[in-house]
Structure formats: C-alpha cells, structure tokens
Design goal:
heterodimer; A: mainly alpha; Cytochrome Bc1 Complex, Chain D, domain 2; 2 strands; about 40% helix; B: mainly beta; Neuraminidase; Immunoglobulin-like; eight-stranded antiparallel sheet; 4 helices
Chain lengths: ~425, ~750
C-alpha cells in the first residue's frame, strides 16, 4: 500500500484537484489499516515471553537462596541452643534497663519484622539514627550503620551502655542478672560462675567484661535464629535455576522486569549484591536530611575509630577467634577521609516490611526511595568533583512500578524460632 | 492585548507566590548569620579588619587601604587611608598592613615592632604579644613585646597535631589568649592555649567539620569562625573545637551573591556590632554578615549544593601539546586532561585525587605535558613531589572518557634530592619546561624537567636517573615570589613574570622588559614567536601578545572591559571574555590555551587572537565544531571485550608479572584462591632484569577502583619474607568491577609504580 507515498497525499489534498472525490485513503487501504491495527493491538496485549540474557540470569542466581546463618567463630556459643534460649529471654527483658522499661524488643519489635517503624530510634531517649532490623543479621560482617561493631555479639552489648538506649553500666547489667534467679541459673548453666558485683566490688574488671561479653554472645546466639523463610523471589529463583524464567503467581511479569532492572540498567546490584542483597560495605549516597538539616553524622569515619578502641571487637581478648579471618579484617581496616558520611548498605530482604528507610529514616516509603534514586533530587554533595557511582536513573513510571514490585517480592515469613 | 493583560496579572502573582513560598519554607534548620550587604567593585580585596570604632578596613591591591564607615549602612563611602599596596591587615591591637616587609602601622601610637620578620605572611597580636607565620617556610613565630627586649620563639607542632605546619595561611589570638592557627596545607585548625598545649581540629575534606583550605580565623562569642577558601564557606567551631555550624555555603556559580560565599580569604569580626566581614578576592567584593537579632526568624539555609550544575574550578596552571591539554583542580586534588584534536576539546580522563600518598595530591601546583601527548609531569608544592604519569592512549582510537587511561610511572620526593652543591631543595612552586624530547629523556642526559623552588633555585631533574642539577644562570633569591615562570627553549632563556615586568634570563645575561601599565596584575606567561610573549592580566581581564620589547601587538578574544563593565559578570562570562585569567600555554602550534579562572573554564584561542572554544569537564562550546576524530570501530570494540576477558582470567589465575621503569619487575601471586569480599594475601617479589631478587627496597601494595574514586577498605600489612620478597595480607576486593592492583617500590625517596587491571564479575 502507498500509505507512505507523499505524492499521493499531496495530490488528493490539492485544492485544484477536481477529477476525484476527496478521499484520504481508498476503502481497501482503510480495511487493511484496521486489520493491521487489530493485529498490533492483540500482539501488544499478549503476554510477552520473558527474555533474560545469560548475564542477567547469572547475576540473578547470585541473589539467593540465603543459606543457613553461618556460625560465628568469634562466639563459641553461636550455635548453642541453651545460649539462644537465654538470649531470647534477655532480648525481651525490660529489666536490663535503667528504668526497667526498655528491652531489645523496644526497638526490635517482632511484629514489625524486628524494627520499630520510627524514623529515629527511641529507647530511654531519642537516639541518633534509624533502627536497623535483626532478621538474618547473622549474615552481616559489620554492625550498626557505621560498622563500629564487627560481630553480632559485640553489637548486642552497645545498647546496654548507651545513655539513650538502656542506660546501664556493664557492672549494673551483671548485677541485674545476678538478682534474677532464672537469669542467674541460665547464665551459670552455660558460662559458669557469674562474678560478684556490688557496691563494694570494683565496677570495672576483666571478670565483669568477660561476663558482659557472654551476655552479648547469648543474645547473638538467639539473634542468629531470627531468619526469614524463602521469599517469592527465592521461589522463582529456584525455578530459574531449573531453566524456567516464566512468572509465577507470586512473582509476576512486573517483578521479573523489576529484577532485570535491578541487575541491569538500575544497577542496584552494584551494592545490594549476594544472597543478603548487601555488599556489607559503606557508601555515601547523599540522601538529604529532614528539614534540610546540615549533615553532621560522620558515619563510617568514626565507626572505624570506635571499632579499634572497642575491647569487645573480634581481635580483642573476649573474642573466641582473635587471630581468625574476621579479626584480621578488623585490624586491617583503616579510617580514611572519604569514609565521611558513609553508612552500611542495608540488606533488602523484607525491605517492604521495614519502613521507613535510610540512616535517619528520612524516606517513608519504598516509592520515595525509588524516586530518590531515579532523580537524586536534593542529593547532598558538598564535594564538587568526585565522580559518583550514582547517576539519576531516570526511571519511567512503569520501571518504577516494576522495581517496587520486585522489592516487595523479597519478603519472606519470619521463620518460627520458638 | 490579551497577552498584555494576562502578563500584568500573572507577574505580580508569581512574585507574590515566590515571596510566600520563601516565607513558608522558613524552618528550624537555619543559618546563624544573615547576609547584610556587599561592598562591591574592589579590584583586588586582600585583607579585612574591623577598627576599634567599628569601621571596616580593606586592604586592596592597587588601591591601598580603604576605610568603610559601617554606621552609614548600605553606603560604601570609601575613604582612602593610604595608597601603598597592601596584602593583608593583621588581627589584634597591633594593626599592621603590608607585604614582603613593607609593613605599615595603622595606629600612630604603635610602631611596627622591630624584629617582625620581613617574610611574615600573616600577623596577629595581643597587647603583649605578636605572632606571625611564614607560609612558604612552614613556620610560626611568637614574640613577647611586653619586655624591653622582645623574645622570639619558633612554635613547633607536637603530637597529637603531628606533621609540623604545612603552608599556614594565617593565625589569630582568641579573647582568652589562646592562639589559633590555620594549618592550611593539612586542612586543619590548631589551638595553642596559654600553657602551650596544642589541639588540632578537622581534617582535609568537604564535609561539615572538615576543611579543604582553612584560610583565616576570627571569633564571635561562641568560638572561632574559619574561612575555608576551597570549601567556599565559613565554619564555626565552639571553644572546645566542636562543630557549631557552617554558613555562607556556597556560591556555585561565579558572582552569585547575597550571602553565598565563593573563595573566601580574609575574615574579620567586630565584637561590638557582631558583624563579620568576608573578603572574596575572587569576586572582587567583601560581604558583610550579622548575627540574627532577638526574635528574628532564622532564614532557611540554602540547600547543600548537589552535583547538578556545579562547574569545575581550576587551578592557575595549564599545559598543552598538539593533542592534549592539562589543568588541575585544587579542590579535588586532581589533574584533568582533554583531547584537543576535536573542537571543542573532549574531556578524556582525571588522575590523582586528594591525599598525601604517591599518586595523590595535596596541591598539584604546576604541570607539563610532553609534545608526544602521552607523558604528563606534575609537581606538588606541599608534598614536595614530582610525578611522572603516562597515558595509555591510542591516538588512532575514538576519543572517549577512560578513567583508567592515566597511570603513574614514578614519584620523586624532591626534598630527598640534593643539588650537586649538596644543598637541599624545598617547596617546588612551578614547572617551567621539559627540556629535550621524550626520546632524549629516555636515552641521555642534558635534558630534564625544569622545577622552580620557593627557596630560590631553579633545577633540572633528569627524568631517567632523577639527578638534579641547578640551573647555571645566576641565582634569583626570591624566584618563588615570581608570578609565573616559563622556559623559552628557542632562546634558551628562563622568563620570570614579575608584577610590573618580565625578566628574561639567558645563559649569561638577564634583561628586564617593562610591562604595559594596563597590565597591572599579570598572572600567566608563555613564550611566543620572535622573542615575544603571551601575558594574561587579572586587573584588566585580558590575554595579550607582546612583542620582544613589551609592546601589545594582539588582544585575544573580546575587547578589554572598562570601568563598571569590569565587574559585570554577565559580560565576563561570554565566550572569548575572561574573568581573572591565569595560566596560559602556547605548546600547541595551532592554539593558545588559557585558564579562565573566574569563569571556571578553559578557553582556546587561535594564534591570531580569535576565540575558538570554551570548555570544562561537562560543558563545552566552540566556534567551529569539528567532526569526531576516529569513530568507534568493530576492532576497537572486540579489543575491549578481549581485554575484559583477560582481566577476568587474570583475577581467576591470581598471578602475574609487571615491569618497572628502572628495568626491574614485580612478580605477584595470590596465596590461595581469589574471591570477592573475602580477604586474600599476595606473595610479591622484586627482581632485576636477570631475574635475581633486588634488595634495599620498600614495598607498598594497594588497589583502587578508578570508576568509583575509591580503593580498598583495608590496608594490607606488608611483611618481608626474605630480601626482595614480601607477603601483603590482607587485601579485600569488596565490590565487583574493575580494580587496579598497584605495587609501589621505594628507595631513596623515589617511588616506581607497577599496576595491573583485574576484573571481578
């Protein structure tokens, strides 16, 4: 057909053309056009076969499944059920706080996927940063937003002594355990005798530090059991491993498009990689603070300093593997000026259940997070020149929706941990 | 008519809306100081200080001292106090203005104290004490003047503020008598209290509480206010050194005003009124800030600048060959390169970055590109280092950005080098020439890299064996104070640019050529044909060509701006116009390149004076766009794929061998398999050409990701197993992507580098 022939159009448009009725297209051409449009419309609406490149498939397969949490060689009670039970009781006990009303679960609420739903954590008083979750945490190598702790057990100790979290001294923690017959017997059953602590004994000693580290190790043993079951994404991934990339009921075409973006153009996998969806490293992405506040949280640069002075780090005397790989990394980690304002890449497992987001909880929804990466609107950069990994992704509305659906598919049920 | 009516309604509405939105946006996060006004159109403001009556004194190059009566707020009724040239005004009761020993007391009852060193570059005082710094000698002096015989004390830096002073720009006494020093080169501020105890605050960086170039210090009731020249803001600390806040952040484009600060230098505060004056030589103005009044609402802090829309700032030096032009960026400590075979030139790579280890820069003050367009020499004034970088550049390939293009070959610690006279050298300030060709450099002596030192020497560093020979010409004691220096190879003369003349120093004879009076602030110089020269001038914003006698024979770009137009930023930003022009280079036979410092760009002119192109890292314009040189071709693309496979394979293999510039080589192999995010160790050996181990060297091992502008998060421990063999443990590649594995071997202050690419999938 000659639809595209300009000559025929100009001829029929001519004012002086009196020889033929003024018909834009012949009847035959009109019928053909309708048929072509119908076919196109049908094709447009037919489910598209999902095409994953080899590279995409290979990269997606690195994102799961999440294996069993590893044992922590720096905590010899890491896989000990008795210690985990004791840790459970400690985790939920409000008695281990200055006013007997704050427990680990105050900020790590099971019903909120062990987070608190707040922007900034609130223990005895308002804290400095947003609460991070505990689920699957045993897979991490660094703890806290700034990585100031290098083990799950040393991480669990920090809140006891923080003035705006639980507000005790380590001697008071030991005293409170000694005064609770159930805690005392559990402690002694696992770790042996608890040192005497009262007003007439020294408030700081190696024995107290040892007992305090044991408290952290019990809590860590419990926290290691806090895991989630396979997510819809994990289930689809098993199918993909068998060579079938087609959508499932719980992981639809939109989620697959989102997955392709995740490992492709959006390149989320650059930092959110491995089965934990986190490189366990520290980056500054420049999310603006509420009220346009001046960013003053030094993040990782201070975290490294705190790590090295912490007596409970994995290279210290309370570590059960002070010469191991973990300790070696800690000792080799250095404070560098470019760590200013860097925070740990959070895991994206269960991310849809753990709003708000970022180290100050600045972003309330996943939609806002995706919009931030899409535009980098307001991104803080006091530095003019540093080339950043981050470029505005400029996602289309459809792409943003796909990415959201993919992120929502990363949640699994909390596994039953008695 | 309809359009007119609607415009009449819409415009006021928009204005109302903007004002309303502005008011509505007032929130808790505000600035401590508010902008009060600008003292504009001062050609070269250099120092500010409040007099006891509250008036403001401004030291202005070419104008002398200007007094501003601050009681008639809003007016700038300048009354000239003096017409002598002045670079700064001291802080404290001993009001001294001056430069290079030409000091002048502003208080008839207080004479300039005898004993004040002529080399003082900043002065502070109390009733009983005067302190000053000598920037280029890294020294601080204190003199007690309460006794009949003044006692002079050299202040050294002790732990924890280790490292000595590095190019301190200024100092000030706090009301409690403590002395605060801007230790500029280290990016920190040091407090010395009455007992002599020292505490250091901040480190080099862009973030709140960090400094890039702390420059000048004043005080308000709560603590010190520090101007950060390259951080473009004022940082307020409390008396314990903790960060209070920052204000004035940040003028993004030149000549933005009303409280946004750009390149602040001198800062002064007035205890009575609370006013703060900030001197911005770059903007040819002084801005005045005042504290919030009681009950006054805090204005909204301007948003922190995002990367969007920020232009690059460049240093004052430029070097060009026929295919390459290089400039440096003081804030990021980098050197930036453009391919000039295309019009406009194309940004191809960046090298370096802030830091004090080899391959990084503190102040890369001068650079040279060889005529082959492949070798780049950079001298760092504060690290005392001369570095040789090479470009992995295939001139037949298409032009595109490549973060991996530049690799450091070696780094020479100039402070370790002795002249043949046995004298040490320190503080290199300029590179003047690569004498001889690259081929000669590789094969013979009698060629070298010309380095100018603040200590007064000009020396030629042999690029092959690093020996250093003093230039045979008679010594110029204050050569470091010259505005710029360059070598005219055709005439075998060193050209020194002084404030009012050009000095040509031949083998036996020196001659002075007076500059035209219109060039009152010359900044850059390059030789041109027939004994002529190119000179840039920041007082008239011009680039001119002079003949051998110093007569202007050509003006480059737009006609010089005069009078009020000199301060017109819009006119100054047009193509071919200049604002504070600096370094100029004629190394490309077809073009002249100039740093258009005030406009944050480089410009290219044709030899006959016509504007050809303006360019930055991200933006460029040209008069005559040229077609792309060397389009991407399939061979190039398949080569890139093959390279990638090689790097992936190399990572998996975990061993390799790399040549070093002096003939030896590095052999490395991993202990155990390499994998991502897991620590690994490397066994490394250094061997000579015959494969025999080389001893007496130190080894450094590092890895970087040039795409990401960062390296590893761990620093490996290097332990020697046997002479010439080491174990580096642990290394850790925490991200997928392209890594550069770097080996530095060091002996006698000279670092040779070998590096290889590894790719992690």
């Amino acid at each position: 057909m000659n639809l595209g022939n300009p000559h025929s159009i100009s001829k029929s448009d001519s004012i002086n053309n009196t020889s033929a009725p003024n018909r834009f297209l012949s009847q035959r051409a009109q019928v053909t056009l309708v048929i072509v449009l119908l076919i196109a419309f049908t094709l447009w609406n037919m489910p598209q076969p999902i095409l994953l490149s080899d590279q995409e498939t290979r990269q997606l397969l690195t994102l799961g499944p999440l294996p069993e949490p590893p044992l922590d060689p720096t905590n010899r009670w890491s896989g000990n059920a008795q210690a985990a039970n004791f840790g459970h009781d400690l985790f939920f006990s409000t008695s281990l706080s200055l006013n007997n009303s704050v427990s680990c679960a105050t900020c790590h609420k099971p019903e909120l996927y062990f987070t608190d739903g707040r922007d900034i954590a609130m223990g005895l008083a308002l804290g400095d940063r947003h609460t991070q979750g505990v689920l699957n945490a045993a897979h991490h190598k660094w703890f806290h937003w700034d990585g100031s702790e290098d083990s799950l057990w040393s991480q669990a100790l920090h809140p006891f002594e923080s003035a705006n979290e639980m507000g005790l001294t380590r001697a008071q923690v030991i005293e409170k355990i000694a005064s609770n017959p159930d805690f005392l017997s559990q402690y002694q059953g696992i770790f042996g005798p608890l040192p005497q602590v009262n007003s007439s004994t020294p408030q700081e000693s190696d024995a107290i530090d040892r007992a305090f580290s044991n408290v952290g190790k019990a809590i860590a043993a419990y926290e290691r059991t806090l895991i989630t079951e396979p997510s819809p994404f994990d289930q689809w991934l098993e199918q993909l491993r068998q060579g079938n990339a087609q959508p499932t009921n719980s992981f639809n075409a939109s989620a697959i498009r989102g997955a392709k973006l995740f490992v492709g153009r959006a390149n989320c996998i650059e930092c959110h990689n491995g089965p934990l969806f986190s490189d366990d490293q520290f980056h500054m992405i420049g999310v603006p603070l509420a009220n346009n506040d001046l960013p003053t949280d030094r993040g990782r640069i201070n975290g490294v300093v705190e790590l090295h002075v912490d007596p409970f780090n994995t290279a210290g005397k309370y570590s059960d593997d002070p010469n191991g790989t973990r300790a070696k990394i800690t000792l080799a980690t250095q404070s560098e000026p470019d760590q200013w304002g860097q925070f740990r890449t959070p895991s994206l497992r269960n991310v849809a259940n753990t709003a708000p987001y970022m180290h100050q909880g600045q972003l309330n929804t996943l939609e806002q997070v995706i919009a931030f990466y899409s535009t980098l609107d307001g991104a803080i950069s006091l530095d003019h020149h540093s080339e950043s990994v981050l470029k505005p992704l400029q996602l289309s509305p459809q792409e943003s929706r796909d990415l959201l659906v993919f992120l929502q598919s990363l949640s699994g049920k909390i596994a039953n941990s008695n | 008519m309809r359009t007119l009516i609607s415009t009449r309604f819409i415009l006021p509405l928009m204005v109302f809306l903007i004002i309303f939105m502005h008011c509505a946006s007032i929130a808790s996060a505000g600035e401590a100081y508010v902008y009060e006004g600008t003292i504009d159109r001062i050609a070269q403001p250099m120092g500010v200080r409040f007099a006891s009556d509250g008036s403001l004194l401004i030291a202005a190059g070419g104008q002398g001292l200007i007094r501003i009566d601050m009681s008639t707020a809003g007016t700038t009724s300048a009354s000239s106090v003096s017409t002598s040239p002045s670079e700064f005004i001291s802080s404290g009761p001993w009001a001294i203005a001056g430069q290079g020993g030409a000091f002048q007391s502003l208080d008839k009852s207080r004479a300039v104290p005898a004993g004040l060193a002529a080399s003082a570059t900043a002065i502070a005082s109390t009733e009983n004490e005067i302190a000053w710094c000598v920037r280029d000698q890294d020294q601080i002096f204190r003199m007690n003047i309460s006794n009949a015989t003044p006692t002079l004390v050299t202040t050294t830096l002790a732990a924890p503020a280790v490292g000595g002073w590095l190019a301190p720009e200024s100092l000030a006494f706090a009301p409690d008598g403590s002395l605060w020093v801007a230790d500029t080169g280290h990016g920190r501020v040091v407090r010395i209290d009455a007992t002599g105890a020292q505490t250091s605050f901040g480190e080099r960086g862009f973030f709140p509480g960090q400094f890039i170039e702390p420059y000048s210090i004043a005080f308000d009731d709560g603590g010190p206010l520090i101007s950060d020249r390259l951080g473009h803001r004022i940082t307020r600390l409390d008396w314990s050194g903790a960060l209070r806040d920052v204000f004035g952040l940040h003028s993004i484009r030149p000549r933005e005003g009303k409280g946004k600060i750009h390149y602040p230098t001198s800062i002064a505060s007035d205890a009575k009124s609370g006013r703060v004056a900030v001197c911005e030589g770059f903007e040819r103005r002084v801005q005045i800030f005042r504290p919030l009044r009681q009950g006054e609402q805090q204005p909204m802090r301007p948003p922190a600048p995002s990367r969007e829309g920020i232009s690059s700032h460049f240093g004052v030096d430029v070097s060009a060959s026929e295919t390459l032009v290089a400039a440096w960026e003081p804030e990021s400590g980098t050197v930036v390169l453009w391919d000039t075979r295309h019009d406009p030139p194309i940004y191809i790579t960046t090298l370096g970055g802030n830091g004090d280890k080899p391959g990084r820069f503190i102040r890369p003050v001068s650079l040279l590109v060889d005529e082959n367009g492949l070798d780049v020499w950079i001298v760092d004034a504060l690290a005392d280092r001369l570095e040789h970088w090479k470009l992995k550049r295939n001139l037949s390939n298409s032009i595109a950005f490549d973060a991996f293009m530049a690799v450091m070959v070696k780094s020479i610690d100039l402070s370790q080098i002795r002249l043949e006279t046995g004298l040490p050298l320190s503080r290199p300030v300029d590179l003047i020439s690569i004498k001889g060709s690259a081929e000669q450099s590789n094969n013979s002596t009698g060629c070298g890299i010309g380095v100018v030192f603040a200590s007064g020497d000009i020396a030629w560093v042999n690029p092959t064996n690093d020996t250093c020979t003093r230039d045979a010409r008679p010594r110029v004691a204050n050569v470091g104070a010259a505005r710029a220096a360059v070598f005219d190879e055709a005439a075998n003369e060193i050209m020194l640019l002084w404030p009012t003349s050009v000095e040509r120093r031949g083998a036996t004879l020196a001659k002075q050529i007076a500059l035209p009076t219109s060039l009152a602030n010359p900044r850059g110089i390059a030789p041109s044909a027939d004994g002529g020269m190119l000179v840039s001038d920041a007082s008239s914003d011009t680039l001119v060509e002079l003949d051998a006698q110093g007569k202007i024979i050509r003006n480059f770009g737009s006609a010089p701006r005069q009078g009020a137009a000199l301060f017109d930023g819009v006119e100054a930003a047009k193509d071919g116009a200049l604002w504070l022009p600096a370094g100029v280079d004629g190394g490309d036979p077809n073009a002249i390149y100039i740093i258009d410092f005030g406009n944050h760009r480089l410009q290219r002119f044709t030899r006959d004076g016509k504007w050809a192109a303006s360019f930055t890292l991200s933006k460029s314009r040209t008069a005559t766009p040229s077609p792309q040189v060397g389009k991407p071709n399939p061979a190039q693309e398949s080569q890139a794929l093959a390279d990638r496979q090689t790097w992936i394979a190399l990572f998996k293999a975990g061993y390799g061998s790399l040549p070093l510039d002096f003939g030896g080589s590095i052999k490395w192999k991993s202990v155990g398999p390499l994998s991502r995010a897991e620590p690994f160790a490397l066994e490394i050996s250094l061997v000579d050409a015959a494969g025999q181990p080389l001893s007496g060297y130190e080894l450094g091992v590092d890895a970087e990701m040039p795409h990401h502008n960062h390296g590893m998060n761990v620093r490996p421990k290097i332990s020697q197993i046997s002479p010439g063999t080491w174990l580096a443990d642990p290394l850790l590649f925490h991200m997928p992507g392209r890594w550069e594995l770097i080996f530095d071997v060091k002996k006698d202050g000279r670092v040779s580098r070998a590096q290889t690419t590894l790719e992690l999938e």
